[in-house]
Amino acid sequence: MHPQLEILLELQDLKAQMLEMEKRDAEYSSREIEEDVFRISAEEAIVQLDTKIQEMEAGLDPDVAARYRLVSGRRPRGSVVPVVDGICYGCFVAMPTAMTRSNETLRWCEGCGSFVYFVD
Amino acid sequence: MELREFFSEDSIKLDLAGKAKDDVLKELIGLFNLPEKSEGILFKMLKRRENLGSTGIGRGIAIPHCRSLVVNRLRVAFGRKAPPIDFKAIDDKPVSYFFLIVAPPLEVSNQYLPVLGKIAQLCRESDVPERLRAIETPAQFLELLSEKQV
Ligand SMILES: [Zn+2]
User: Fold this and answer.
1) Is B88 one of the catalytic residues?
2) Whole-angstrom Cα distance, residue B139 to residue B136?
């Protein structure tokens, strides 16, 4: 796997975790479960996750960081999106068939601009 | 929706070999049959969640969980370890029973939180640790889930 893609993937997962921890509106939210069942402090967890996210963002190459900033601000689904059965889950458009399904190269979707990750 | 629907016999391992927290997490991840690189990323994410606070909820049970792009749908697994291992659980007791739950960040059917909630609910039942200790086959684990109707 491309090392920058690995950082992007981890960032995406951390952000998903943080966003979920912040949400209070769901019927049985992740925040509630984390606090009630696992007895962790959501506020402390958010601070820890945020620090880790900033640390990892600093590890992105400048050109990757530029696209990352562009797409993470614009796309609620995140800066890396999975491609499942050839479909980009950022914009639900089929990826060009000529594109090899490999995560060894860092690629993005021409449709929505997000980095893509091919899920087996 | 019942918990039973999410488990299959090949995602259940009643004789985990790992002797420490990390080994057991890796063994549980192995039940998903993911590519090696994905396993590594998932392990890192689970560890990050554990760093926020142990998922050991007491009475010998832990529910490691996280969201990760390396899975394309909700995945669950169950593992049992005898003798129990230290997992920094909230009651400081060692852990024998592990429910692993992983879902992608964008999940069409939104099953992750309900499933996590149901597993937590199951684990609160007073006879569950003893029942989990007594099962002898993966099929019996599935029967227990059906019987509990969670
Ligand atoms: Zn797209």
Assistant:
1) no
2) 8
Name which of B105, B119, B48 is nearest A45 in CA terms: B48
Alpha-carbon gap: A34 to the closest alpha carbon of chain B (Å): 9
B98's enclosing H/E stretch is strand B95-103
User: Does the beta carbon of A4 lie under 8 angstroms from any beta carbon of chain B?
Assistant: no
Domains and CATH numbers, chain B: 3-148 (3.40.930.10)
pTM of the model: 0.92
A with B: how many residue pairs have Cβ under 8 Å apart? 84
Task: Dump pLDDT digits (tens) for A82-116.
Answer: 898 899 988 999 998 777 788 999 999 999 999 99
> What domains are defined for chain A?
3-119 (1.10.287.1490)
ipTM, interface predicted TM-score of the complex: 0.89
Q: Is the pLDDT of residue A120 over 80?
A: no
